[in-house]
Amino acid sequence: MTLPFFFLEFMTGLASAASLFLLAVGLSLIFGALGIVNFAHGSFFVLGAYFLFALTRGDAAGFWHYLLLAVAASLVVGAVVERVFMRRVLNRAEHYQILLTYALLLIIEDLSKICFGADYKSIGMPKGFEMPVFVLGIPFPSYYLGLVGLAAAAALLLWLFLHRTRYGTLVRAVTQDREMLEALGVNVPLLFTVIFALGIGLAGFGGAVSLPLQSISTGVAVDAVISAFIVVVVGGLGSIWGTLLGAILIGEIQAFGALVLPEFSIAFTYVLMAAVLLFRPWGLLGRPPAVRT
Amino acid sequence: MRTKLAVAAAVLAVLPWFLHDYGMQVAIQALVLAVFAMSFNLLFRNTGLLSFGHAACFGAAGYTTALLVSKLRWSFAATLPLALVAAALVALVIGFFSVRLTKIYFTMLTLAFAQMLWAVTHKWYGFTGGDNGITGLLPPGLLGNPKGLYYASLVALAVVCAIIHVIRRSPAGYTLRAVRDNPARAEAIGISAFEYMVTAFVLSGTLSGLAGFLQVAWQHSAFPDLLYWTTSAEVIIAVILGGSAEFFGPVIGAAVLVVLEAVVRSHTQYWPLALGIVLLAMVLFFPSGVISLFQRRQRREAPRAAA
């Protein structure tokens, strides 16, 4: 293994980390605020990819402007799902929340099969990234770098929103103490709708921008949601930077694991997940739960 | 209750004489899922722990049987003890580590362990056949013909129900529920919550292994799907659909789920959509499960009869 090869493998891992981050960050955000474990999260990721594919009709020429539309559609879907379904189970036992989101997973899977067909969808490299770049003399898809840039931009914007705006402060506050926020006159139900829609929008965005990288079919959702669980559990449920760290770790483990021991590279990620849960259940960068009296 | 049980047992005992081939397949699948669901609920009902790792026990037993039969040419029935031991060992490892955690962290850790086993099985072509699975396992004799397998599954269900009934009424059962309802108080009077919960996990996992063994006997094959997280999701659905608070709720849920699937699939390929809608309706409108539909009507009718 030469150094350039090593570096390219690292970049490939980083590209899948970018995709994983966008997929998982919404899950983490939603769990932090609403306390709901969303088993349908992978389905919204896939749905975002389908939206983009349907809008562009599989032609990469319209990628960038239809991307905005696909994300807008995901935001709307998220808001509607929160209003119609999620708020009814907010205060219910967690197995009902799991069952409800699992029901959504099943429904979205079949509805997208009906609307878009069961075959694999993929799209070419978007405008501006058609040509590979040469890294140390080896061609490398430039879009991989673009994807990493997009995910980094999304992480930065999300951080600015959460830490530098008033509404972002409310989002962080509701993860700490919902009753207090309600007592202060904040419209918490609306806040929940915004957070859920934002989380789903991010997943949809992630699905859409990952489409040039990996072809998508309805069956991808059940795998994607488990990948998202691994990432947020490793990084820490409810932590943005934790999710970023988790995504990078998992992306790189998969990239290099496939080189070293291809038969067990998926198993490695579960080993990491189990180890984190055993020694730091709140995740690498998560905060230990405060004991509430 | 006793007469109802006797009637249900009598109906189940003569059922094979009224079903044709496809009906028998559906009935056997329902019984196998019922065994799995009862076993799962042993843990869920008595400890409140929602495990996403039961597919590991189910699949470990199934694969033990499949591997012994295909590689070492064991007879099908002779693999049962080892299949149960495999399920028990898997349950011991998962339970030992997982019951230290609570709520969603418990669920996630059991999920991680089960997925680990799935990932290895899925990729280890040299030993498990990977995602090609192990096929062509035709059990000879009793387990090979539908009627034989039906009665074997029925007996298995009866045994599992009897074991769970005894546990539920035993001091250990009460202790488990005490731990579930107030772990701090239970610890304060000297109960080791950890030991009781691990024991419950192992028992529940071992009995799930019985279901895994029957599943492989029924489908004549073993695939990594047996270990995948959706298998755990399916048994959770059966349990909650039937009603986890009622003793026979999981059996009802398993029967409803399997029969509904057979009916829907004979009309349309969109079974997941139908199941999703049923689950949505259940969570939103009758959260205590199908079994509560009957009870509520009884309660509503009772005062009218009195008046």
Main β sheet profile of chain B: none
Oligomerization: heterodimer
Q: Please, what is the average pLDDT of chain B?
A: 87
Total DSSP helices of chain B: 14
Number of strands of chain B: 0
In whole angstroms, the N-to-C terminal distance of chain B is 25 Å
- What radius of gyration of chain B results from the CA coordinates? 20 Å
* Chain pair sharing the greatest interface: A-B, 41 and 39 residues
Principal-axis shape of chain A = globular
The shape of chain B, in one word, is: globular
| Fraction of residues in helix of chain B | over 70%
Provide an overview of this structure.
The complex is a heterodimer of chains A (293) and B (307). By secondary structure, chain A is mainly α. Chain A has one domain (3-279). Chain A contains 11 helices and 2 strands; from the N terminus they run ααααββααααααα. Chain A has helices spanning 3-34, 41-56, 63-89, 94-116, 142-164, 166-176, 178-183, 188-210, 220-235, 240-260, 265-279, and strands at 133-135, 138-140. Chain A has a two-stranded antiparallel ribbon with strand order 1-2. In chain A, strand 1 (133-135) and strand 2 (138-140) form a beta hairpin. In chain A, helix 1 packs across helix 9 and helix 9 (220-235) crosses helix 10 (240-260). The termini of chain A are far apart. The mean pLDDT of chain A is 88. Chain B has 307 residues and is an all-alpha fold. Chain B has one domain (15-229). Chain B is 77% helix and 0% strand. Chain B has 14 helices and no strands. Chain B has helices at residues 2-14, 21-47, 54-72, 80-98, 103-123, 125-128, 146-169, 171-181, 183-188, 193-219, 229-242, 249-267, 271-285, 290-306. In chain B, helix 2 (21-47) runs antiparallel to helix 10, helix 2 (21-47) crosses helix 11 (229-242) and helix 3 (54-72) packs antiparallel against helix 4 (80-98). Chain B starts with a helix and ends with a helix. Mean pLDDT of chain B is 87; it is low at 300-307. The chains are: A mainly alpha (293), B mainly alpha (307). Chain A binds chain B through residues 37, 39, 85, 88-89, 92, 94-96, 98-100, 102-107, 109-111, 113-114, 222, 226, 229-230, 233, 237, 262-264, 266-267, 270-271, 273-274, 277-278, 281, and chain B through 50, 97, 100-101, 103-105, 107-109, 111-113, 115-116, 119-120, 122-125, 229-230, 233, 236-237, 240, 270, 272-273, 275-277, 279-280, 282-284, 287.
